[in-house]
Amino acid sequence: MPDNFSDTPAALHYNLLGRTGLSVSAFGLGGGGKSCLGRKTGLSEAQSIRVVKRALELGVNFIDTGARNGTEGIIGSAIRGEDRQRLVLSSKANVSIGETLVTARQFAASIDNSLQALGTSYIDIMQFHGVLPEEYDYMLAELMPVMLQFQQAGKIRFIGLSEHFDRDREHAMLQRALQDDYWDVLMVGYNLLNQTAGRSIFPLTRERNIGVLGMFAVRRAFTTADAFRHAIAERIASGDLPKDFDVDTLLGQLSEPSRSGSAVTDTAYRFCRDEQGIDSVLVGTGDIGHLEQNIASFRRPPLPAQTLRLIEQSFGHIADFSGN
Ligand SMILES: NC(=O)c1ccc[n+]([C@@H]2O[C@H](COP(=O)([O-])OP(=O)(O)OC[C@H]3O[C@@H](n4cnc5c(N)ncnc54)[C@H](OP(=O)(O)O)[C@@H]3O)[C@@H](O)[C@H]2O)c1
After folding, report:
1. What is the pLDDT of residue 257?
2. Which atom from ligand 1 is nearest to the alpha carbon of 286?
3. Which of 192, 277, 296, 297 could be stapled to 266 by a disulfide with Cβ–Cβ 3.0 to 4.6 Å?
4. What are residue 292's phi and psi, to 5 degrees?
5. Residue 223 domain-assigned?
């Protein structure tokens, strides 16, 4: 396996994904988000395929995508010829398109398309995509029977649910979902400036052995020091942080020097990686340089306890933030 990181000897960590028993890399490659593996940032198909292949070369075994991301075919091409059993694939089907709820027939067609585009006879985790609280009951009544049929047919192994974090920042939908016992895996928004899942979601997922995938670890807010300053300025304006909050001193305290790339990005990913409630942190990128930097971050040691304390003390009370 090619490896340019001989100065960071630690291997990528693998975690058990809750009750699924699947072993997943703590770094999960995200096929959606703002980059969609480069589909939204101008890469050619061949370049996007290269991003996926590079992640596999560096030890990533978990890839997430979704019907709406337009990357299932890219991933299908990238994994052709790989040992399928070594890989854990996750995809998602929409519960609504715009304001319109999908029918059971549309939902089934979406899963069939995902299987075909990924070029696989089974998907390890199939999720309901970005579900809003008001969609939950419809989804259970009309679409869950379809999901269960695919599972019984052996075409999906485990059932998951992702939230619409930007519109549901305190996890109302997932709190409702945790009253039911359908869920093998949940996809949860969590980052430096929104740690609410640590209180309302992770204690229950751990108690019930539900696998957790983290999203929004970096998003837009933690891509650069300037983006972080902007996010802090917004939190000051909203009253979440005091007017005299000293962002530059904090940035200096938070960021250990990283060999390349943004120190705030390094800290943001490692903060989520170190959260015990998260089994795999999804990293969305269409940039091989970023991919390599981020994998190097995931191979670094845990953040120091004093850094974690500082993050919790400074931002642990903030709830109205996604990172978009
Ligand atoms: N509701 C849902 O189900 C849902 C919603 C959102 C996301 N997701 C899943 O979660 C995955 C991750 O999405 P996310 O938005 O949470 O990803 P993220 O990793 O938190 O943020 C990705 C963004 O950060 C940038 N970035 C990554 N590494 C960087 C680096 N080293 N330096 C500077 N910028 C960097 C990327 O741009 P570059 O391309 O330039 O690197 C991209 O714009 C998605 O791919 C998808 O699988 C699911």
Report:
1. 62
2. 39
3. 297
4. -70, -40
5. no
